[in-house]
Design brief:
By secondary structure, the protein is α+β, with helices and mostly antiparallel strands. Helices cover about 35% and strands about 15% of the residues.
Length: about 425
């Protein structure tokens, strides 16, 4: 696509949705590894999150773009040979194509030096290096291992109370000296040596310079975003301004990024030279809170005029929309949001609250109900239930020809699980 000097917001939305794969045709048959690869070629990564109210966040982006698929597809790609995905810190803790691993070795090297890693773990790395080396030797001898397999591990209730074994393993993970082999049903990581997990060709691949790697990461971000501000580009892989902005200038000079102006955006913006703008996008998708289309909240507001904050750590009485809210994308707009919970004991996908956005089209309720039914079936649930909460609950229940139920008790404020990683924001402190 040739760059225009000035783009309208509608044009930018279409470019962004196409860049994220929402303009691609869903497969006619079953979703296979090649379809997973196609989506990851668009998004670059899936963010991992341990909260499992409806479904863990990293399973949703593929569903949002392709529809129902067997969750084992993602599990196999990230835990069995031939492995195509690995875990590391990217946007946050993420699943990434194994080909991206060499591009993150500079971050691993910095972690070994104690930078780019949150303060408490960096301090532990300096003070307990002998113990860390001991844990590494144990992984080498006995791996794959979880923290609970290391002598001296004690059960914990959150990452602030990690055992020394868990801290050692996480330091080694940041430093690239171990990687995720697989996860237990409890979501606990099992760690092993990279050379026993990653494909030999990836292990043997040369390590690019930090500058070359950062340029490559910025280009992945630009492809995934379509049109982006400098802040958007660096946020995708959580690059510092010092690492990102010189690389952006270099990509502009090389013709990879094309400067554009977006009507209504005060910030300067760039479009990837291969970005495309379809005539229209006909999406219908429920979006996990950590979907790459919406994970950067200020960009979500700029693109969709949609104010969104996740409220799982907000006390129940202060929540506006609910505990774990999924925005609903219809066409080229976000038109509603629903607080969802998979109640597997009763076989229902429960809509704890439903809210519409201003100007939502008349077909929103029917389209949202259809999306919820498809999601419920994908999760192995028999039905959708709608609680009498939110300005859109009555219309949604009517679309599904179902009676509303009284809202249940609010979910408690979330506590960090033992296997939940600190956010990248913590890492940068």
């Amino acid at each position: 696509m040739r760059a225009k000097e000035r783009l309208t917001l509608k044009e930018v939305r279409r470019i962004a949705l196409a860049a994220q794969g929402f303009a691609d045709r869903a497969p006619d048959g079953s979703v296979e590894r090649r379809h997973l690869g196609r989506v990851l070629a668009r998004t670059g990564l899936f963010q991992i999150d341990s909260v499992n109210v409806a479904v863990r966040a990293h399973y949703m982006p593929l569903f949002s773009r392709l529809g129902p698929y067997h969750a084992g597809l993602l599990d196999r790609a990230s835990s069995r040979k031939p492995r195509s995905l690995f875990e590391y810190w990217a946007h946050e803790a993420s699943l990434l194509p194994v080909e991206t691993q060499p591009l993150l070795r500079w971050r691993m090297a910095r972690a070994q030096e104690g930078s780019g890693i949150y303060g408490g773990l960096a301090r532990f790395g300096r003070e307990q290096r002998a113990f860390i080396d001991q844990v590494l030797a144990e992984v080498a001898a006995r791996g794959p291992l979880g923290a609970s397999d290391i002598d001296g591990h004690k059960g914990t209730t959150g990452w602030w109370q990690w055992s020394d074994a868990k801290r050692a393993l996480e330091w080694l993970f940041w430093a690239g000296l171990v990687t995720t082999h697989s996860r237990r049903p409890s979501f606990e990581r099992l760690y092993d040596l990279p050379e026993r997990v990653l494909p030999p060709a990836i292990v043997a691949a040369p390590t690019p310079s930090p500058e070359d790697a950062q340029r490559a990461l910025i280009e992945i971000s630009a492809r995934a975003l379509g049109v982006a501000t400098p802040s958007d580009l660096r946020d995708y892989f959580r690059l510092s301004p010092e690492d990102a902005y010189p690389r952006i200038d270099e990509l502009v000079e090389n013709g990879v990024l094309l400067p554009v102006a977006v009507k209504g955006w005060p910030q300067k913006a760039y479009m990837h030279r291969d970005a495309r703008m379809p005539r229209r996008v006909e999406a219908r998708a429920l979006l996990a809170p950590f979907d790459p289309l919406i994970w950067e909240r200020s960009r979500t507001e700029r693109l969709f005029d949609f104010h969104y904050r996740i409220e799982i750590y907000t006390p129940a009485h202060k929540r506006v929309y609910g505990y774990y809210v999924y925005p609903f994308l219809l066409g080229e707009r976000i038109v509603a949001r629903v607080d969802l919970k998979a109640d597997r004991q009763i076989g229902a996908l429960r809509v704890q609250a439903a809210h519409s956005e201003p100007g939502a089209p008349p077909e929103t309720a029917e389209e949202l109900w259809r999306a919820l039914e498809i999601m419920a079936s994908w999760l192995g649930l028999e039905r959708v239930e709608v609680a009498r909460k939110g300005d859109f609950s009555r219309a949604l229940a009517a679309a599904g020809q179902t009676e509303m139920r009284e809202p249940g008790p609010e979910e408690p404020r979330a506590e960090q699980e033992a296997e939940t990683e600190p956010t990248f924001g913590e890492a940068q402190r």
